[in-house]
């Protein structure tokens, strides 16, 4: 081969940016993020900081505020755990099995994303109410699924299930069956294979799905108020109390403090969960 054939043109050896207009795109993206997301959050934090220590203590010491926060965080946590378990099962079925109606089931998973929350709340209340398909069957046994904490958990599971499915499903699709077949050939039982092979790979995705379902449940409003009963100190969620305080005379201060508390606690929970997910991901790569 001649020396001339090995010589590349200068334009071919010149380094090219992978994305044309990257600087402009990055600037526009950060500007849009700041205006739409960061600016309103910063305004809320600054407004709450201007209330002073007395305003904060007065709002935090309100028993109704404390009760609403307990209801919101408690039900969101329980619902996210349940949605995570059943979401992982649904994702496993969609990835590992082929059956009639699989594509329809896959499409139905995304239904809570597109369904208006008010419609979801009315539908759930009609199904699980005293005269509903499910609630009517349980009513003779004294089991009530609406106007209590159970109804809130049901609504939040409905909303959070797609997040769990869609975060676990891609990981299962890339996982493949080779590692499972290798473990089985070495004599590992199904339980051992699940515990030592599959779960370590799924843990980061499971934590991500849990955090998304949990965060979505904390801010859910429309689907909950139709099924919770909205009883103060019992089934009243924090987003509903914020709305009530805003409608009251002189209640803006309490609403701002409650919204800021909900924001900060949600942010801390998400940071902790995401840090744990990254730690597990790095640990699994180091083991591999």
UniProtKB/TrEMBL annotation:
Gene3D superfamilies cross-referenced by the UniProt entry: MetI-like
Keyword Transmembrane helix applies: yes
A Gene Ontology term for the protein's cellular component: plasma membrane
Source superkingdom: Bacteria
Keywords: Membrane, Sulfate transport, Transmembrane, Transmembrane helix, Transport
Location of the protein in the cell: Cell membrane
GO molecular function terms attached to this record: ABC-type sulfate transporter activity
Cytoplasm keyword on record: no
Residue ranges of every copy of the ABC transmembrane type-1 domain listed in the record: 69-273
PROSITE patterns: ABC_TM1 (PS50928)
Membrane topology field: Multi-pass membrane protein
Stretches that traverse the bilayer: 21-46, 71-95, 107-129, 141-165, 205-231, 251-275
Oligomer and partners: The complex is composed of two ATP-binding proteins (CysA), two transmembrane proteins (CysT and CysW) and a solute-binding protein (CysP).
Entry-linked PANTHER family: SULFATE TRANSPORT SYSTEM PERMEASE PROTEIN, SULFATE TRANSPORT SYSTEM PERMEASE PROTEIN CYST
Function summary: Part of the ABC transporter complex CysAWTP (TC 3.A.1.6.1) involved in sulfate/thiosulfate import. Probably responsible for the translocation of the substrate across the membrane.
Family: Belongs to the binding-protein-dependent transport system permease family. CysTW subfamily.
NCBIfam families xrefs: 3a0106s02, permease_CysT
Protein name from the UniProt record: Sulfate transport system permease protein CysT
Source organism of the structure: Lysobacter firmicutimachus
Lineage, uppermost ranks: Bacteria, Pseudomonadati, Pseudomonadota, Gammaproteobacteria, Lysobacterales
């Amino acid at each position: 081969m001649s020396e001339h054939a090995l010589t590349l043109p200068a334009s071919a050896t010149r380094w090219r940016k992978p994305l044309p207009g990257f600087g402009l795109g990055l600037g526009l993206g950060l500007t849009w993020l700041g205006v739409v997301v960061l600016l309103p959050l910063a305004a809320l934090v600054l407004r709450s900081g201007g209330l002073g220590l007395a305003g904060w203590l007065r709002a935090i010491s309100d028993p109704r505020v404390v009760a609403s926060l307990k209801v919101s965080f408690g039900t969101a946590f329980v619902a996210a755990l349940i949605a995570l378990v059943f979401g992982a099962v649904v994702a496993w079925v969609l990835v590992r099995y082929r059956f009639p109606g699989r594509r329809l089931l896959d499409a139905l998973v995304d239904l809570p994303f597109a369904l208006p929350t008010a419609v979801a709340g009315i539908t759930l209340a009609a199904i699980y109410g005293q005269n509903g398909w499910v609630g009517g069957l349980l009513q003779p046994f004294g089991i009530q699924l609406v106007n209590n904490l159970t109804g809130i958990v049901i609504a939040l599971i409905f909303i959070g299930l797609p997040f769990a499915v869609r975060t676990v499903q891609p990981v299962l699709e890339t996982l493949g069956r080779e590692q499972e077949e290798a473990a089985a050939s070495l004599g590992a039982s199904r339980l051992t294979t699940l515990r030592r092979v599959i779960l370590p790979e799924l843990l980061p995705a499971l934590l991500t799905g849990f955090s998304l379902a949990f965060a979505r449940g904390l801010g859910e409003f429309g689907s909950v108020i139709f099924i919770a009963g909205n009883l103060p100190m019992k089934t009243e969620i924090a987003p509903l109390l914020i709305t009530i305080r805003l409608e009251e005379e002189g209640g803006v201060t309490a609403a701002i403090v409650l919204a800021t508390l909900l924001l900060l606690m949600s942010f801390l929970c998400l940071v902790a969960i995401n840090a744990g997910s990254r730690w597990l991901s790095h640990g699994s790569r180091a083991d591999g």
